[in-house]
Every structure is written in C-alpha cells, then in structure tokens.
Design brief:
This protein is an alpha/beta fold and about 160 residues long. The protein has 6 helices and 8 strands. A hairpin with a 7-residue loop joins strand 6 and strand 7. The N and C termini lie close together (about 10 Å).
C-alpha cells in the first residue's frame, strides 16, 4: 500500500494562512479511511501560527528560497524563510520515513504550490513556479500534485490501494 502526503487544509483542517480550509474531498476521506494519508501543513509544522499574515516568494521560486537565495516574506515584510524551510524539511523527513512517492498539496501556496504561485508583490498576480515544500519534495524524488490534479493522482495510485 502506497501512502500519500496530503496538505492538511485539503483534508478540511483549518490551517490555511487565513484560518480556513479547503475540502475535505470524498476521495481523500476514502484514502484516509484506508490509512493511506499522511497529513501535514508545512507552515504549521515549521512553527507558524494560524491565522498568519500571507507570505509570498518573489517569482514563486521555491527552489531558490529552499537554497537560501531569496527570502519568503509576509505582506508586512517579515522574513519567515526559517519556518518555511523547517516545514519543507519535515515534509521530506516524513516522505522518507513513510516511503512516500506522491504528495497532494495545495495549489499556489508559497509552501505547497507545484505549478504556479504568486509573484511576490501581494497583488494576486500568478506566475509559473513552485513553493518551498513542493521544491524540497520534488528534489527528494516525490511527485507533487495539487487538488486540481487529484484525478490524475488517483489514476496513478489505482491498483495500489485497496
């Protein structure tokens, strides 16, 4: 049985920066009942509170933030890079412990976004890129999906669950 790392907000846990959640999704509830879900909010795991000020990475360059080349900043200008890095390292550690090869993470998040994020100006402008945790997992060999790709992930896991 293959486990999947899943953003806690997608499981209905109120851990998003604004204290909200998305989901739960019926498929994720089924996977959870089968013991396949390893839940994690990287930002909370890194020590950030809920709610918290929104944060962005210039150009949605999560790999550069992971490497310490650019900071993760809140809308107030606070550098929260250490918390984002801590959460990313926890995600990689969990993936290794649980032999996880797939993650389902929140789209456009500065931690979890796997295809796009925000440009760092807090204007709502989206750009191609990824979050810090998505970059760390990708570098560790974990394939990252977002909630818009859940059907694709389910197809990949078919035959491995149940």
């Amino acid at each position: 049985m293959r486990k999947v790392l899943v953003s806690r907000c997608l499981l209905g846990h109120p851990v998003r920066y604004d204290g909200g959640a998305q989901g739960p999704f019926a498929l994720l509830e089924r996977w959870q009942a089968l013991g396949l879900v390893v839940p994690l909010c990287p930002e909370v795991a890194g020590g950030l509170p809920t709610p918290r000020p929104p944060a962005e990475i210039r150009g949605a360059r999560g790999a550069d933030a992971l490497a310490g080349l650019i900071p993760v900043l809140t809308i107030e200008g606070e550098d929260v890079s250490a918390a984002f890095l801590g959460g990313a390292l926890r995600a990689v550690e969990l993936a290794r412990q649980e032999n996880i090869r797939f993650a389902l993470l929140k789209a456009r998040s500065p931690s979890c976004g796997n295809e796009e994020g925000y440009d760092g100006s807090f204007s709502g402008r989206r750009v191609a890129g990824e979050g810090v945790t998505a970059a760390a997992l990708r570098q560790a060999g974990v394939r990252v999906f977002n909630e818009g790709q859940i059907a694709e992930l389910a197809q990949m896991l078919e035959g491995r669950i149940g």
